[in-house]
């Protein structure tokens, strides 16, 4: 997801915030009473208790919540999804314009700390029915079996509580349902019973140049797997979706429905089986009875607080909002690992300038892949990474040039004049959990009066060595391809691991099936439960986990 993952800070919600400055607070507190007459305030209205109780509430409608919602609805359960963002009409709302589409990102401010603070906004989460899949760039490689066993193979990190074989049937199901475009056979990993249902999408300019450089160095490449249709495709339970037009602005939302975002795939399927998706519903409280069992949630909608009762709760809000909601409600905290083990893929980009026109805004952004670096023989680090070509939009690229090369004003304008001749390569590398990489609640409040999340992140030795290895290789690829003025932009991508799954509640928040160890009817299903970061983009694995979690839950209910 190269274009999706560029670094950009979020912005404050425009609602008037609470006063934060201690000096100003003290001055206001000392104001004479005569100057600030007390106006009697009406008693707050009690939130009504709904007459019905639904079987399941799903919080979040992204890659974790939407597949799970559809599966539960297809089993005949009464399910409601609560989404903080609004419904979008792709044909009317998704423009080919970077700045106009910033409403797709989760723009509430998140506080960053550590030596390598992670920027948020469009970097790694979204708002709206469909979540971050509205603006992801549809890069959907499978993880390799070894990705789930870092500790077994290297003695660092932790292993997943199950093996690749548990997820493999779900990968196949997703690829066929979503209509993933990719090569058959796929060059790396275990052999597959079924190939991709559609041929690969065309290689864009950067992909063709990367392919040329890799061929000269003897590095195998392949067209990448993308959840965007290379041909018209019939999706069971939904109907026909049209082929990708290769306009390249996947981060701005797909206006044709060719990209397999949740709003055109699993959410219509869920609705067809009776699921109720409610947009604009921001959950603030999770209610419990005297035994600790969850009884419902309170959420804000159109300025009003509402209550919804349930028998089971599925938290699928992502690796920031999920642990934040748990911490705010003091829920599932017995392991001490809520908010801990935060990981972010190392994702350095290397750019070069070419004589031929590249036009990096055209075509699917991540068109070419190489997994030859999954476990490099000359590695001085644990884990591995993949290589991918990247397409990048002009405003995003200008921001990276300003930060990465310290160019501004006339010098930035001169450099940007060669934008159409620039190509990039990106890595997506594993990241180990560290004790000093974590999420906590800050004293500072957001516009709703809730504590903001503060995320600490520092790249450690393993991530630094992996990044150095990758940068040297990518520079060699661009040199072989004929690039000049080669430079690197260090960055991190994705947010992972803040409520991880495991075999024991001593060091994990949920079990192998996503069920909380210390709350009988709470399940978590998103990228927060990943025990390790994996050396691939997370979207496909999040969806596979969602289907598996739903199936395990339904088996238990039966």
From TrEMBL:
InterPro entries: FAD/NAD-bd_sf, GMC_OxRdtase_N, GMC_OxRtase_C
Sequence ranges assigned to domain Glucose-methanol-choline oxidoreductase C-terminal in this UniProt record: 433-546
Keywords in alphabetical order: FAD, Flavoprotein, Oxidoreductase
Domain Glucose-methanol-choline oxidoreductase N-terminal: start-end pairs: 125-346
UniProt KW Oxidoreductase keyword: yes
Superkingdom of the source species: Bacteria
An example molecular function term from Gene Ontology annotations: oxidoreductase activity, acting on CH-OH group of donors
Family, similarity comment: Belongs to the GMC oxidoreductase family.
Name the record gives this protein: GMC family oxidoreductase
